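Write out the 3D structure for:
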Amino acid sequence: MSEVGLFWLLLPIAGGVSWYLARRGSERVTGARVNRLRSNYFRGLNYLLNEQPDKAIEVFLHIAEVDSDTVETHLALGSLFRRRGEVDRAIRVHQNLVARPSLSAEQKTQALLALGEDYMRAGLLDRAETLFTDLVGIDSQAPSALRHLISICQQERDWRKAIDHAHRLEQATGESQARLIAQYWCELAEHARSRRDFDGARRHLAEAFAREPNCVRGLLIAARMAMDAGDPSRAAQSFELVVDHDIDFVPEVLGPVQRCYEQIDEPHRAREFLRQLAERYDGISPVLALSRIIEDNEGESAAVAYLTEQLRSRPSIRGLMRLIELSLRSATPGERERLAVLQELVRKLIEGKAAYRCTRCGFGARAHHWQCPSCKSWGTVKPIHGVAGD
């Protein structure tokens, strides 16, 4: 952790101590005691400013030990330990705080929430779940506790419990959780489909669409189920709806929807669909797919001409790779050698590159994820556009 980051972590501690000293001063506590605490406070702050965070922590710990009334300082210290990975110390600080009989109801709730976060960080999910459930039961800090419970259910993949907690969070805050709940129903639908429980999958999808009528994930699952059932026409309609509702899902749809068009023997429909996508979508995927259709129907020269024209307006390494591939077929031996070298260089540029990125935290991935593996947000992983992307 950088010194600047640590400074911002310790700042709440300094603020809490400063407030505490001001309060003590206003209550006219013994001057010597206030002066001693004030001196320690400024000594700890001096360590912070001089980039000596470990010494600063020790000073603030000493302040917390000397005066048992510094609840805010204990909470901040426990949070600091947790963020630094010292979860055992954070648990001890917060457990000692919870055990105090003199805490107000609000202070005890804050301490319990912090202790629950410690348990989660330590992987003690059963303890954390019990603690947060108790807090929700007494309607104390219900939204915060419910959010933590939802997070635990996601880790345990207990989607029905997650749905229940999300409904309660919606009621407690008035904020819609429709998209989140739809994702959970889709998780259940995917699981049912994998077990070939198609009736169960359809019921779960109905619940997802009830919460989010234009649920893209639900449409994708419905399309794949139609393919499973040998109904490519209905599958193609669902795939077309996916890109109507969210154009970013073009890379996920192109392969399967083209197979559907082949099965129902509608090549003109496929070509028109790809042409419209190429006009609406900034990426190279529909252009590459269309170049293959042009090659099959009109020959390599027409495909090269089309691709060359498209690359002028939307430069793409993947597009260049396809252009080299087409050019190699009609190249002379000397040209073929040079093109092969260029092809290998382009292949290495593409190899290992992330194709998707989370719009919230920036996490890069080679495959699409419905839930970001890094920040755990749902529906935020999108294709990367640009020269090196789609």
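The first helix runs from residue 3 to 26.
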